[in-house]
Amino acid sequence: MYPPVSILNAIELDTVTPPEITMLNTQTRSMRWKCMYNAILRQGEDMSVRDFPHDKNLIKLKAGVLAHRNTGGRWDHNIHRLGLAKEEDSQGSTRIPHGLVVDHCHVPDFAFDKESLLFEFAPLMHGGWSNSTKDRDVYLEVTLPVMRQSQHYDASILPMLIMLNIIAITCLTRNFASATAATEIMLSIAFVQVGIRLTLESRLPSVGYTIKMQRVMNCCFWLLSGLVLESNAVFFLVTKMGWETYATDRIDLASAIAAMMYNGHIVSIYYSGKMIKDDKYVVAHSGETMI
Hints:
Layout lengths: L4 E3 L2 E16 L4 E12 L14 E10 L21 H4 L19 E4 L4 E6 L14 E11 L2 H20 L8 H23 L10 H28 L5 H27 L9 E3 L8
Antiparallel strand pairs: 1-4, 2-3, 4-7, 5-7, 5-8, 6-7
Helix pairs in contact: 2-3, 2-4, 2-5, 3-4, 4-5
């Protein structure tokens, strides 16, 4: 018989290997409990993708003994406390506190800090609220910092968006006779960016706030919209108001400079909050030894 250890925040839980119980010390009734699980975990409300694709979060696993913990029970919490494992308890098999080992980790699209796996005890809220803190049982909370891998967006998506913006801005240099063609090019670029956005939106989570990648796409759309409106305004001034082309050329030049500055602002929005990937962050592949 082994204690009913459970992962408290598991949505789906499969046992890969049956539990193995080893009595380490008969006097202290210290035991080692080993089992391998495959689980999908529920995370807290503090998780956010607001800075996608540069978001960083804490993945948490909560483990504890849930049943027969009352006084006189089979796993009386006064006798079988969920406590720290000592070095001699590990018998050379692990150097991790609390006797918990994570040696296989798979976090799709994320890198993790292999040296910052955190272990701490938190009070287990059960029973009446009148229970004193000292009588309250605890569960083990394991925290793993993870950082999204953004290389695909950094090297492919953003450069393509910025280059499309630059191409649209250079259309302002076309002479007045080809102004209609320039507007058509800008609109074509806008349609291309809309297609890119629809593809990205299908990969983004549905949340109640604007994600950074969405803000970048919005800025690109407003930039192209402004260029098209400027081109139409210049066409109106020449054909309807009788302006000379040399005067509208100055408007085009000022608009191009402002658009280039706004293009740089888009880049700064994208890279705001991006962390420099340290050597301590490693790519998480299935089956990779973490500890």
